Amino acid sequence: MQPQVDPATMTSQDAPEGLLLEVNGVTKQFEGLVANRDIDFNIPRHSIVSIIGPNGAGKTTFFNQITGIYPPTSGRIVLDGIDITGFQPHEVAELGIARTYQNIRLFQNMTVLANVQVGRHVRMRGQWYHAIFGTAAIRREEEETVAKSRELLTLVGLRRRVENELAKNLPYGDQRRLEIARALASDPKLLLLDEPTAGMNPGETRQMTDFIGRLRRDLRLTILLIEHDMKVVMGVSERITVLDYGEKIAEGTPLEIRSNPRVIEAYLGKQAATS
Amino acid sequence: MSEMRSLLARAARLGGISGALVLYLVAVGLVLAFAQRNTVTGVVTLGRLMVIAPPLALAFVAAGGRGTFAARLAAGLVTGIISGLITAAAVLFVSSVEVRFILVRISPPLIDFMEFSQGAVPGAAINLAVAIGAGLVGAAVRLIPPRPRRPLVNATLGVVVVSLLEPFLRPRLTDFKLASVARFMFDHKGLTIVAAILVFILFAAFTVGWPILKNNTQRRIAAADPATQATIRGVAILVFILFLLALPQIAGSFLSQVLVFVGLYTLLALGLNIVVGYAGLLDLGYVAFYAVGSYLTALLTSPISSLGLGIPFWIALPIVVLGAALTGVFIGAPVLRLRGDYLAIVTLGFGEIARLLFLSDALKPWFGGVQGILGVPPLFGVTKVSVPILGWELHGPTLTYYPLLGLCVIAAFFAYRIKYSRAGRAWNAMREDEDVAQATGVNTTNYKLLAFALGASVGCLGGAVFVTHLASVFPGTFSITVSITVLSIIILGGMGSIPGVVVGSLALIGLPELLREFAEFRLLVYGGVLVIMMLVRPEGLLPDQARRRELHEAEEETESEDATDAGLERA
Known about the structure:
Chain A is α/β, with parallel strands linked by helices. Chain A is 39% helix and 23% strand. Chain A contains eleven helices and ten strands. In chain A, the strands form two sheets. Chain A has a six-stranded mixed sheet, sandwiched between helices. Chain A has a four-stranded antiparallel sheet with strand order 2-1-4-5, with helices on one face. Chain B folds into three domains: 1-143, no CATH class; 147-215, no CATH class; 262-474, no CATH class. Chain B is globular.
């Protein structure tokens, strides 16, 4: 068990290794629409940071550029000292970024266990011709993968007896957990969670935020959260970045963000900000 | 009361379907084609069974609804009446109005057959009576409790199946010096009445006895010590292998030819199964790989081909496989970015392009155009092999059977191993959600090309062996129907399932060969089978769940360990 660190007292100075992800001046333009404009954004190692903003603020676009789904129009993305701008998604995944999706996207017709095993794909070396000959190395790798996958299922709170169910047959909350297990299977340096509490009631939401805090502590993960619900991120994240209309309008600790007039304006309208 | 009404309304609807089905079978000519084929000689022909079966089967369905005993029987009756009325009306209509200029199959012999040779009005009445009888019997069978019903139904089906096998059983029995048995069993292309009763009893007894026998045996095996269990398993596998090896001798030359077709299509389907079943890439031009396998083999091994090399088959084979794999990559590369329907259309085009290239005058110096390539030597260099001790003479299909069997076993083993590997899971993930698979780290470009290359390699094996069997290759063989047939096999058997591929080939290639009368209706039957499968059992005959069930059973023993789970909610 890692020593517990209170997120509130942990600042970037407590993370001596420095920055895990540096995003410099990223702009994304679709035809006439500027989805992200000149965004600078850093994630210190072993921190939980959040990006919030109203619907349509460009959060998911920003996510998609980090994970390589499409390249930025301009700007640079550096992960752990490696410039990953324009990398393919599978290359980004191999370098240590894993993600979940706002609208859960599991491999529906595969078993729960197989979903996690696919998550392990980038850390496995066995090729198809090894599999055909059933070498000792590949058998060991398969066994290790099954063991690791089961460990992760337990970690996210899924029971052993569901591991051979098809993913689509799991209840909603378990599907979210499975998605996290699949992401964790690739031993990521950076875990991106896209609205992990979407569709959850307040009780489930609290469980999930507690769980995110535990992940960082126990697995020494760095986590980037996307949320449009401000309340969710206040408790867990030490830094929050606010996007609106594709631009970064504020950045700071939860306390600073809560009282920032521009943020209040973006969320509640101009009148609320001035009153 | 409303329950009763809905039951009867459903029965009426089913009766309409039954009537339409009968008319359809009659109008396309299937019924007349089987009119001469006796099932039980002197009692019923296969053609007659085709007219009786729809009201029987649909009344069985109709009587399955919720309701009282009498209501369910009435439902079967309604189905029978409506079906019979439709047939009777049609009989009256075609005997008074000439329809042959539109429905060419409605010939005088067919009309006579449908009238039971009794003239229009009595014929129509008989049709009605037969349908009502069938409806009542169908409903009655449904109302019997399952325990006595199952042997009854199985025994009836058993009689039909054995009678269908007459053209093959009779000559084989004679070959094995059992002519007297053959004479006793069969008469005029059908079972004799006595034999039919014996077969019925045999099947009924088997249906009742088999589960008991199986349970007892399983219990005894489970009680035995592991060493004995291993021995039993080993002996069982050995017996199965010996059976497969002896099969052409048991089956005879004609059935061996059927087995060769089944083997060829099994290989093709195993290959396509990798592309479609595992990776989810709908390839409608799969025939291209079959063609490449055939032509490459012919080019390399035939001494009179344009290359004129005359390389021995087994040396040529690795080159053929490599060539096919490269073709797979060539066809795969341009379609990497296409998905779903678009991919299907483009590959459909590639399949046709392949055929036209082999047919073309421009490439005639290489591939021989319409004439194809001749003079492909037999697989082992000789046309006849005699097996010492056993005294077997292997030639033609009984010889080709063995390399095909060997390649099928190897290909199935490969397919199985890959399926449960990192590559297999990556393909499945791609099939489920390509974007997420890529974001999870699967290099989708490489894995798509790998699927095409491996699928092509397996499929080309079929072409390679088959071309040595025919000693020649013609472009006409490689029509779009081959692609469609192979795809149908996979769908029928169950996408991605290896036993399903074998069952699919047996059902779609083996059965039509046995029922020669089907030949011209083959595509029609495929279409019907696929529609029914999609409606009733979209996952296929043998879907891929055996392993899951296996795992489930293994897991129940470890269930107690679950208690130590650290769950999210308890954290």
